[in-house]
Amino acid sequence: MWIKHPIPGIDKPALTKFAVLKPYTAVPAGAADDLLFSRWLVSTPLWAWLVFALALSAWPMASYASSTYTMSDAFQALWRWIPFIVTGGFFFNVVISFFAMLIGTVLGVILGLMQISPLWVIRFPAQVITQVFRNSPWLVLLFIVLLALPYEIEFGDTIIRIPDWMKAVFGLCLPIMANISEVVRGAINSVPSGQWEAAESLAYTRQQTLWQIILPQCFKRMIPPWMNWYAILTMATPLCSLLGVEEIITLSRQAIEAENNKPELLVPFYGFALLIFFAYCYPIARATIALERRFAVKL
Amino acid sequence: MSQPAWTEDQPIVSIKDVHKSFGDLEVLKGISMDVMKGEVICIIGPSGSGKSTLIRCVNALNDIQSGSIQVEGQEVNDKALDKLELRKKVGMVFQQYNLFPHKTALENIMMAPIKVLKQDKAEVEKRARSLIEKVRLQGKENAYPGELSGGQQQRVAIARSLAMNPDIMLFDEVTAALDPETVKEVLVTIKDLAEDGMTCMLVTHEMGFAKEIADHIYFTDRGVIVEHGPPATFFEQANDPRTQEFLSQIL
Amino acid sequence: MLEAFTEFFRTLAEDHPRWNFIFFYEPRQWARIVKGFQHTIVLSIACVFFSVVIGVVGAWMQSSPSKWVRRIVQGYIQFFRNTPPFVQLLFFYFALGQFTPTVTGPDGWTEVPLVSNIGWAIISLSFFAGAFNVEIFRSGIEAVPESTQEAASALGFSRLQTYMDVVLPLAFRVSLPALNNNLVNLVKTTTQAIAIAVPELLYQSVSIWSDYPSAQYPTMILLFLSFIFLVGILVLGMSRWERAMRIPGYGG
Known about the structure:
The complex is a heterotrimer of chains A (about 300), B (about 250) and C (about 250). Helix content of chain A is about 70%, strand content about 5%. Chain A has helices at about 35-45, 45-65, 70-115, 120-135, 140-150, 165-190, 195-200, 205-235, 250-260, 265-299; strands at about 150-155, 160. In chain A, α6 crosses α8 (about 205-235) and α8 runs antiparallel to α10. Chain C has a single domain (about 1-245), classed as MetI-like (MetI-like fold), CATH 1.10.3720. Helix content of chain C is about 75%, strand content about 0%. Chain C has helices at about 1-15, 20-25, 25-60, 65-80, 85-95, 115-140, 145-155, 160-190, 200-210, 215-245, and strands at about 100-105, 110-115. In chain C, α3 (about 25-60) runs antiparallel to α9 and α5 crosses α6. Classes of the chains: A mainly alpha (about 300), B alpha/beta (about 250), C mainly alpha (about 250). Chains A and C meet through α1, α2, α5 and α10 of A and α4, α5, α6, α7 and α8 of C.
């Protein structure tokens, strides 16, 4: 039924007493991290990406119609290089994101729990660390870690070289740590304070309350934002190319150079990079939103 | 447009055989009524009977499918209608007050005369202050809507409409969202207005109030006017079983 | 005073070779830092400004009656949201940059591109943050109840007047916290302009520590503190503004 002016009480629920502003759907400031990123990723129709890819390749094709090196040559070049770019490049993006997430999560959970400590000496440094790493640019963190970490570590006689990608893992795990810390704090704070009081009245200690009552309740709530951050992290891994870490953008550049730097190559190669990230993050985003819906109903 | 000039002996609002539906739902099924200048009419009836829709049609917030609504001789059901002209004549007060939350009480009252009628600011302010006094809210000029109670907000909303110097005031269940203790202060304000000779059309559930101030009462149910008459006869001698049933539930 | 300051860092560098705060006593390095800082600020201000303009215009276009206008805006949002800003920068500068016309440079004989790398960084980052701003403002507009707009039209306000005097002031207040978050993120993202050699703070820092490896730790510290400072100022300013815009009587 098509309604031009819905009338309260007739074709929509009667309004509340103070109809000033309706609930605002975007993220409130300072809230634990939202699922904005995943939501938007999910809301992209898949065909839009195909149309986008076609449109992108059509433009330079028109510009270079007269040149001898055609767009189909460029796509053939891309086709030859894809196995190299994916196995040697994108594979490392995935590896870096996986380990950065693992370490970032462990550290982030510890930091998050410290943030809700009743002890000032524990809480305050944790809050400072969280805010500092949340608010500094990822690229700056990457540079600093890459240069500050030694190239090799000596263990008695054996010398272990630290590969660049491992340093990138440390660089990227810092912002993830800070953001996961906020996720944990936000989730714990979202449990009604009545739960704490109820547990206290049953003579639970604070530690018991936290581990046996509060955390089991908010664990599920943390999973969707955690996955959201994984997608954001994956999207950030191309930054490592600036530091010479071998990953998809670095290898794409090398491939373009090997093909004599033809300008026609730029669109297919970078376009492929855009699409492969989308292809990887899209299912994660879908799962995130699906999980979020499921937990939203249950909780 | 050569319409016969409207004179005060003709109805100020003339509604003839109005039909209105939202999709498949027919809300008004041929409603007619005349309101004379200075008259106070109350429209009562069960929820969903089309009362609110009817008065929203009078100032063109809802359009109608067929029939005619004339305000001071001006046809409202007309694509070429100058809505600004109409709304200068017809003030409206809503159930939800709908004050602008980012403006103070005084600014809420002054906004439309300045922005819409392009009147002089100093003059508007003078008038707005006297309106505040009229609705008995002295001292609340600089309060924001969120700092006022429901009844106070509703009185600001009435003053805001009056600032446009309307000839007719429409009241759409203006006390329905209020706490019982603040209902009275709003009703007193409306009564003052009616006694000053303002033409008023009210949709209300306050039967006692309707009985006291109305010149004429209309009872609507399922999109038609079931019964109407002056309060004395309407409440004492309702004929239709639907009216009787409604009144027995309410009174 | 200044003399003593530079002297202190000069001796510090001599005594502790790893703590060479070279930019505190060598004017050329100091000039680099200042220039980098200026570029970062110019980049941030320009991007903040244009992205907010894009946000307001885009949100207005999204309420357009034309289905195609809405779809184009939606397509724009989806593209810029869901791809890494870093790859967008590379894409704009390298892939699209080569199709833009060139003009004769100031020296009279070299050809320089019409849009410089700083120009591309501003365009790319503004569109990136603008996509988020469109959504932020749109949700803000949707939060204004129809009934409030209806009250305005019952008072004789035109559509444009209703939009300008009632909807936008309310929507803007609702959007501020989310806008705040996004702009902080934007300032952080300006560092990625290093990819196309925009001489902003990170770029200058990297070149200082590659020229003077002994200055590596001090430069890092300076870089880190600079960004904490910049972001801190933005957050502080925005939260003050938020408080100033707060409507008394509603919300905390």
